[in-house]
Design goal:
Number of strands: 2
Radius of gyration: 18 Å
Strand order of the largest sheet: 1-2
Largest sheet: 2 strands, parallel
Structural class: mainly alpha
Distance between the termini: 43 Å
């Protein structure tokens, strides 16, 4: 007799420990790793996954890397609207990159359930891992791009999300109650 299972039984578990991984990486950035004279031995964090919260997956949706129209969770299919990648990029290119630092009118984005947020954050981790693996295989690419790590990609996505119009216009999903991001 076959036992019952859920869709999550078909895949490997993806653990989303944003704060713990970010703290470990921040310690390595501050104190270095692999030094023989280090008081605190720190591991190499270059292979850590991205620190997925609500910004990373929202950026990946915005740039069309995560396409939600085929998501198994119906609310995710339309959570971010239907703006296409080319429309998103055209909007960014035509807007003034300068933004009033005091502007607090932020696009709060869609409200997601715990399951929907987990799926989206996990997809962000997986997508960034695929981006890094693809970059390493690009022979004709700048060696700095080939050497990018998931934490570096995370930092780049975060910095881009905080620039110009994206700072207020990027729809970042919300999950209530949630203290993670």
């Amino acid at each position: 007799m076959l036992s019952s299972f859920t869709i999550f039984d078909l895949f490997l578990a993806i653990y989303v420990f944003k704060k713990a991984l970010f703290l470990l990486h921040a310690l390595v950035l501050r104190f270095g790793q692999g030094r023989a004279d280090a008081e605190i031995p720190l591991p190499d964090t270059s292979d850590l996954p991205v620190f997925s919260d609500n910004v990373i997956p929202s950026m990946l949706v915005h740039f069309g890397i995560l396409e939600l129209q085929a998501a198994n969770l119906p609310n995710l299919r339309t959570a971010f609207g239907r703006l296409t990648v080319s429309e998103n990029l055209r909007t960014i290119a035509t807007e003034n990159a300068e933004i009033n630092k005091l502007d607090t009118d932020v696009n709060e984005g869609p409200m997601l359930s715990m399951e929907e947020a987990y799926v989206l954050r996990s997809a962000g981790i997986d997508a960034c891992d695929m981006i890094v693996r693809k970059a390493k295989g690009l022979v004709e690419m700048d060696p700095r791009i080939q050497a990018v790590t998931p934490p570096e990609l995370d930092g780049w996505l975060w910095s881009v999300a905080k620039e110009g119009r994206l700072r207020t216009d990027l729809a970042r999903f919300r999950e209530v109650p949630c203290v993670m991001y």
